[in-house]
């Protein structure tokens, strides 16, 4: 299973760049980039922070997908 997310879509919706989101979430811009490319699995704390920034549920931002 892989963890997928809607970060890029939500950033665009809210007019945020990766640096903006990183500052709000308390992570590095590189971490945001890795998250968007599904190359990093966030801690539950980071996932909650990011979901709150976008006023979304964790489940609407992050989802598990079956490997192909």
UniProtKB/TrEMBL annotation:
Transcription in keyword set: no
Annotated ranges, domain HTH cro/C1-type: 7-61
This protein's record includes keyword Cell inner membrane: no
Top-rank lineage group of the source organism: Bacteria
Pfam family, one: HTH_3
Keywords, alphabetical: DNA-binding
GO molecular function: DNA binding
Chain segments annotated as transmembrane: none
InterPro entries in UniProt: Cro/C1-type_HTH, Lambda_DNA-bd_dom_sf
Record protein name field: DNA-binding helix-turn-helix protein
Species of the source: Streptococcus mitis
